[in-house]
Amino acid sequence: MSAAEPTLARGLHRRSFLRGAGLGTALGAGALTGAFAAAGAAADTDPSGRAIAFHGPHQAGITTPPQAAASFVSFSVLAPDRAALKQLFAVLTDRVRVLTAGGPVPATDLASPPTDSATLGPVIPADGLTVTVGVGASLFDHRYGLADRKPAKLTAMPAFPDDDLAGSTELHGDLSLQICADSRDTVMHALRDLTRHTRGLLQAAWKVDGFHAAPRPSGTPRNQLGFKDGIANPDTASQATADALVWTHGNANGEPAWVEGGSYQVIRIIRMLVEFWDRVSQHEQEQMIGRRRDSGAPLTGTKETDLPDYQGDQLGLIIPNTAHIRLANPRTPDSADSQILRRGYTYERGLDLAGNLDVGLIFCCYQQDVERQFAAVQQRLAGEPLVDYISPTGGGYFFALPGVSSPTDTFGAALLA
Ligand code: HEM
Predict the structure, then answer these.
(1) Nearest-5° angle of CA 238, CA 243, CA 246?
(2) CA atoms of 223 and 210, how far apart (whole Å)
(3) How many domains in the chain?
(4) Counting runs of H as helices and runs of E as strands, what totals does the chain give?
């Protein structure tokens, strides 16, 4: 009996299987696997969606405009030693390279577990997939002898005023994956593939899924407070701006050489207390944010793209001095180098025990220096009126590794050299 026979007997009647595959009954089971895969690929050759380049000096998923769906997943690294850690990065590199390019799933011997979950069919669509790999401060402990290579500003995320982190199971991690794509099932498919191939080397610790809403009606999408969110961001199309605010540079700012082209990533899971928010007048909501709810325009302007005019409103009579946007980015010469690149997603995950919605923002930002940028902004926001309507419950600081430069390069090659 061929090795493929038991599988057929268990799951499927042999004759109907062959008919379904369009192959007739003449083929032996041995020939079947490859022929079936080829027939499947021919029947569904739509590698739908765009492929986002994987190779480059920086990882994709940082300055890439946010795709519709995302998962942020934090892992413990189980690799027993440095050689195994190297192996982990090599496997991750290979799989992310394959998944982000898309293409037909290789044929499987029917007696073995299939190489792919098949949740996307026989041809994996590229579908705008990006997988951004970050490392946490704990990876630089005693286990792998990397203490002297830790990015200079990488620490465990501290608790900030008004945080609600006690008892949180969604904090920190050795390694993080930010998986984003144009559809939800592509994100899930990538995660299953990556966890499967790294089994024994990585263990998922926590995960939060998000979506990036469609623009309503146009311009920047809205968050669950009903305000357009993500309007004001540094213009990373400018290389000079990205180099000054987003990318880390080796042997500068106290950094080790290997960090060239990386970026610090901050993830904050921030619940929005929408039941309370919905009982606040629109005027008060707009005073808290500093922008109009309908158009997203700053209160000193008429369009979302208008810059807030703080010079002409020094007393804060139009945009209060306590407004979120004014505190977050006062747009003074002193605050210029604390700007962050925000890349947040909305999360929505059912109800709490009291029946209130558990919705909010997966706040995610990238920067060159987490102290100078995110922490400075967060400190300015401490005590802002908005804090009564939000509750940060988890997250972490990670360092997004430099990009994989070529087909022979791997994640973390310079770190582990
Ligand atoms: C659930 C929590 C939060 C909500 C609901 C929220 C909401 C908003 C909204 C509606 C805007 C205006 C639109 C825009 O420019 O994108 C904004 C801007 C901004 N937010 Fe937040 N935000 C939250 C948390 C944070 C956090 C934790 C930080 C950083 C520590 C932050 C930093 C910023 C910055 C830098 C801007 C742009 C200000 C500017 O350049 O004018 N936000 N936020």
Answers:
(1) 100
(2) 11
(3) 2
(4) 11, 11
Instruction: Return the bridge partners of 264, or none.
Output: 367, 399
Q: Tell me the C-alpha distance between 337 and 348, whole Å.
A: 33
Residue 63 counted as domain residue? no
Ligand 1 pocket, 384 CB below 6 A? no
Nearest CA to ligand 1 atom 8: 229
Ligand 1: which residue has its CA nearest to atom 25? 363
223 in contact with ligand 1, CB cutoff 6 A: yes
Taking only the tens place, the pLDDT of each residue in 66-107 is 999 999 999 999 999 999 999 999 999 999 999 999 999 998
pTM for the whole thing?
0.89
Q: How confident is the model at residue 49 (pLDDT cuts 50, 70, 90)?
A: confident
Output the CA 159–ligand 1 centroid distance in Å.
19
**Ligand 1: centre distance to CA 407 (Å):** 38
Q: What is the DSSP letter of 366?
A: E
Kindly state whether residue 167 falls inside one of the protein's structural domains: yes
**What whole-number distance in Å separates Cα of residue 254 and Cα of residue 260?**
12
Which residues span the domain enclosing 24?
5-43
